[in-house]
Amino acid sequence: HITVETNATLYDDPAARLVDLFSLSPKLASSAPSSDAAHHRLRLNLPAVQAFLDRARADGKDFQLKFVYARPADADEILSILARLRGWTPSDVLLMPLGATPAEMARAVPSALEQCLRHGWRFCDRLHISLFGNREGV
Question: What is the pTM of this model?
């Protein structure tokens, strides 16, 4: 079983045909400082995201759209992204709260859960952070 986790900015069909599960994590505007122009220009490639979804649907493979959620404005951006994609259902969407420490994550969890309930999305914990904090090797 091959799973690929990717920000979905690049798509290669021969490689995609070998994958069983696509974990697609498009980057939201909140993912980098506003001064990083290159990041903002390259962070989102909707045709590539759609190509992954199309390949998954054509081959009967699994995918998930996983967004790192930091603030309520992220939900608006996620909805805007989803409106431009086809072939997904609300249960294909996961929200993972932003945070490198349990305390940082805890600040984003209530709002992320609220958005999941509102839109039928799934919540994705960062279990390694919850259990061990931001440490290497876990």
Answer: 0.89
